[in-house]
Amino acid sequence: FLLRKEGVPQGDTLAMVLHRIVIVLLADQLQDMDPEVLTPFCADDESFNVIARKEARLVAFLKKKGLWLGFFPKPDKSYFVCDDPGDLEDKGYTKIRIVEGKR
């Protein structure tokens, strides 16, 4: 058999099952860290609705735990929904698309 660094090959039906398991694990852990977090994950994009000051801790968690589980968050492909986007922009989080809103 072949060892793969990338995980499941594209088109393999196992990919959907494994992706869902990883997403649920990450979503549960994020929810445990902060009950206010809503976790509507889609593809490789993460989306939060949190108070801006909690953002850095959650993104750092995703980068650390996500990599271990084969989930590679890409800030430039991600949307971050928060109550006050001004706080994030002031902190220099420019690689993440920051939008104002509530769910």
From TrEMBL:
<protein>
    <recommendedName>
        <fullName>Reverse transcriptase domain-containing protein</fullName>
    </recommendedName>
</protein>
